[in-house]
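## retry 2 of 3
previous attempt timed out at serialization; input unchanged, resubmitting
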Amino acid sequence: MLEQRRLGSGGLVVSAIGLGCMGMSEFYGATDEDEGVATIQRALDLGVTLIDTADIYGPFTNERLVGRALRGRRDEAVLATKFGNVRNERGERLGIDGSPDYVRRACEASLERLGVDHIDLYYQHRVDPATPIEDTVGAMAGLVEQGKVRFLGLSEASQATIRRAHAVHPISALQSEYSLWTRDPEDAVLEAVRELGIGFVAYSPLGRGFLTGQFADTEKLAADDFRRNNPRFQGENARHNAALVETVVAVAAEKGVTPAQVALAWVLSRGDDVVPIPGTKRRTYLEQNVVAAGIELSGDELERLEQAFPRGAAAGERYPDMSSIDR
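## retry succeeded, writing output
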């Protein structure tokens, strides 16, 4: 049985490691829906309860895949999805919308695609600068009152926005990128969510695979893999970042585990209110990731990783366009 961790003060409890489902439908090269479904069901078998998706993944197809995987097993999962990043059926990005009417329409659409009557954890995917966060969260709170949503979350929100949102309705989880090479939340956000009693969900805890030591050469990536355009995977940035990862590889070799397991164990070590959700589209990697929940890094190992990855160590921005991040 996987360790359980509490997200927020409202009673939401999830497995210490969750499963990010995005890559099963888009962004990381070829997809196989049947393997994606099998991976989600294997996660449930292993005690992984937090299953994470979003309306735009696919676009719109990932929620259907997740819903298919959970058919007959809905009660075993803590189902999380997101709204706010707007795309059309062709995949074109149409901006961010946090208006109350959009919140309600997006939720109805997600419930239909997922084939469920409620969402356990509903996130605003990105903060809409054109809509006061009080209005967005007020509409989200209405969904809780209607029983369509159990708990509320934000993603990539600044500490000031989180405080304003939490004053309207309790926020149970903040989901943001967090890993050895992305330690930005340590600047102010982690302190704020802990003060408010909000859990932290870490996406991309493996640095989009870079921390596994396997993706320093973007030429090995599929032509439609979005990492080809990610600044941290390019040119001199990639060479600099690959040198950082050598410490992860060395610690893993000495410990008899994989670099991915070391990277996940580091995130898990940051506190019992932190839950990483490594994404994978294959059962093999899922099974390896879950093992990380039982790996404890020694003080010496943590210090070596700290020396290799001080805040700001990674070269390059996290995304080609960081304009949607609420800072």
